[in-house]
Structure formats: C-alpha cells, structure tokens
Amino acid sequence: MLLLFLFLAVLLLTYSNGANDNFKGVATLWGSGTLAYRPALILATVATFAGSICSYFFAEELIRNFSGKGLVPDDIIQSVDFTLSVALAAGVTVLLATRFGFPISTTHGLVGALVGAGLVAVGTAVNFAKLGASFFLPLILGPVLAVGLGSLVYVLFRQGRRAAGITEASCVCVGNAWVPVATAPTAAFTALPTLQAGTGTQAEC
What we know:
Layout: H1 2-21, H2 27-31, H3 37-58, H4 60-65, H5 74-77, H6 80-99, H7 106-122, H8 128-163, E1 170-182, E2 189-201
C-alpha cells in the first residue's frame, strides 16, 4: 500500500511541476505575440517532455543530489516513508503555490521537503555541510552568474549594434541587383541578377 501511495505522490509532484514550470520556457513567445496561446502551450509541453527524457540520461548528479544521499543516513533514504514524505511535501507545496499564484520553484520545494523530512527523521544529524555544498551554494551562485553573463552579452551585442549603425528604424533590405560579370576573358560583360541584402531605413527599403 505504501508503494501505491508513493507512486501517486510522485505523480502529484510531476503534475505540480508541470503546472508550475511548463509554460515558463515559452512565456516570452506568448507575451510578445510571437505565438498564440495554444501553439505556445504545445511547444512548451513538447520541449518539457524532451528535456525530461534528456535529464534521465544527462542529469545523473542532479538525481543523486535529490535522492538525499549524504544529507541523511542511507538507511533513511532507502525507506519508503522518507521518500513518500518528500514527494508529498514537495508536490503539495508546489501545487498550492501554483494555484494561488505564489512564486515557487520545484527545486526549492524539493530541498525544503528533504530538509524537513530529514529533521523529523534524524533531527540535528542532518548533514548541513552537504546541504550547503549541493543545494544552497548552486542556488545562490546560479542567479548571480546568470545576471553577470547576461549583462556582459548584452553590452557586447549593444556595442556591435551601435558599431554597425543599426537603430530601431533599421530594417533588412532584400531584392535583386543587376551586377555586371565577365563571361569570357575578353572585355565583354553581361548583366545577371544577384540577390543582395543590406540594412537601411524603411523608406530606403
């Protein structure tokens, strides 16, 4: 019976995670009007599913961390009660936060569930050094690195745009140009159509 409850708890967690995270990857596409809601939702679902399949093969370290290994004793990790508690706590937390519009991360929900279940199971024997190295440090450094690298890339692209003379009024001009080319070693020339592209104002295009 416990295994059945564990299976249902994992389904609850995956449902909550999808409800909370699925649309984040395409929110900009929908908000900017690039995609309508339904195509954006389909793209998000397909991409999330593909990512989950890839994570099964490439996220071995992530899976090991979220198993709680090193955080609490191995005999606790292998118990169905502990795993059921973690899955239920994280699933319900993420589902309630999603339903009421609170900002939430499934990662944070899982970390909280692991710590909470660990404290109940072994008290202060929880390995807080492992908690800091495997969870807190990456969760703190990740956003800082993202902001730093994002700002650097933005500055480089902005400087490149200014150097190229591209403004908000610029557009890409594409059309046929008649360019003379030599057909023989003689001085005779003929005109052939060649595709050209360049930037300019809309009036120039």
